[in-house]
Amino acid sequence: MMNLTRKNLGEAVNKNILSASQADALFDFLQEQTHDTPRFTFTHVLYYLGGLVAIGAMTLFMNLGWESFGGAGILLISLVYATLGLKMTNVFAARNLPIPAGISATFVVCLTPLAIYGLQQWLGVWPDESVYRDYHRYIKWHWLYMELATLAVGVVVAWKYPYPFLIMPIAVTLWYMSMDITAMISGGDNNWELRKLVSLYAGLLMICLAFWIDVRSRHQADYAFWIYMFGVTAFWGGLSLQNSEFELSKFIYFCINLVMIGVGVVLVRRVFVVFGALGSCGYIAHLAYDVFKDSWLFPIALTVIGLGIIYLGILWQKHEKAITEKSRRMLPLALRELLEARS
Question: pTM of the entire structure?
Answer without folding.
Answer: 0.79
